[in-house]
Amino acid sequence: MVGIGAGVDPELAGKRVVILPTFHYGTWATRTVVPARNVIPVPEHTDPLQMAMLSVNPAAAYSLLNDVVPLRPGDWVGLTLANSAVGHYVVALARRAGVKTLAVVRNEDAAAEVRQLGADLVVVDGNGLKERVTEGLRDARLRVLFEGTGDSGQISQLVTAVEDGGSVITFASVTGQVPSLPLGDLIYRGITLRGFFILNWIRDTPRERLERVYAEFVELVDEGVLHANVAATYPLERYQDALRHVQNDTRNGKILFVS
After folding, report:
1. Burial 120-146 (b: 16+ CB within 10 A, else e)
2. Average pLDDT of the chain?
């Protein structure tokens, strides 16, 4: 922080902070003004690129694994978009907690990437998805499916692996479709479909817990447990190049602005 206002803890002056996302102010800027309640101090020694990505995706993965349904070591969770940034963090945090992951991806390159992260069962979308998932899980059932495609056809294939009374949690929709469940799973098996939005979690979580969770993230980044690939960095004045790069489907990692 380069400056603080009246009534703000003077200890924050000059410290590196993570800005919590609220959509109330812009961060594509060399400087911005935010309320002190929306920043979390972080250490100076930690990789600033990884710190820049801490506020959204790691928090989403943490909340999905800790606040949606009770999970214990040995439980299984399913995850689509498993090679996304959220997917990377879910796999890493689940592995650390002893929770097993079924990771669904779109191609073999993504499958190899997610296997390297430590997912327990990796399946490529396509023909026979339901049967291949059932075979891979054997007698196990998913406690919850974290779904980010919005593709109801894929969901219908995967929901058969969710235990009766389990949940499907939608955290994104890369297809732009509205996800739905087959009627039989919804009524007869009691599967619930719920949405998740990280900004709501940040808004509703007590400040003390936010500070504790983000402090844990910093430690896990330092330990190499949490890491997101960075495909490229750009100065802010090259924002057009950055936006073009973001739209490149072959990129493998995040695009970040640096000063």
Report:
1. bbbbebeeebeebbeeebeebebbbbb
2. 93
